[in-house]
């Protein structure tokens, strides 16, 4: 089943019954019916494309504006009718809560679409050159990918500003119902930042990823996946991710058999891979943010060393 446009993908998706759509969005395995799997992959690709990204940027803005206007009108009505300023007191909390819920649901939807596309993409016939066979010998140089501390400085600086600045501003306002939740949230963020930074520092001498003639290696776990077990490499956009090399990307190595990878991985790594599969539909995922090599370098190394071609989200269906 060849789906060439976004309209065709959306139309085919809507013709599926509600139960099937729900199962596809929540499944951790490819759909057994190739036709339905192709529809799911095409719809997910269309929903994650550039046009959909623009809608994801516009909709939260409109939603936030609607919430602010509605909450403000409600607060004014309460004050006019009863003379109470309670509405204006709880207005910030209601607004922030509504925005958080909306963003959380939006993120869950994007994760589900990404996972659905990765799992079912093999059933989507796309007009493209045939991929090189995996495991093709090559004289390419191995690619060793480690942490780039210069790239991580910006994230650490932003975290420091938020951790120190937000509670300071909230305390300056002098309202406990604002600064207490803010201080707790920023305290949790501080703990997360310290733990993640300590992990990066502890692993600074160990590469994150190594691509060579044998396959894809994760040196920290002493685990290697041979090239014949890698079907393709998918490059996904990373929301709001921009660095000195340009936009950040998520690189998904799609195995021929996910379960085979999980069974051969060490127990601790296998548990982590299962969680990763819940997000991306694949156990081997790398984000190039904060790494010494970008997505394009990793993709080129995969093609040169293993003959594995890349797929890019949203490339098949067009608006």
Automatic annotation (TrEMBL):
Domain of life, source organism: Bacteria
UniProt entry keywords in alphabetical sequence: Membrane, Transmembrane, Transmembrane helix
Keyword Transmembrane helix: yes
Transmembrane regions: 57-78, 90-107, 156-173, 179-202
Protein name per the record: PH domain-containing protein
Protein species of origin: Planotetraspora phitsanulokensis
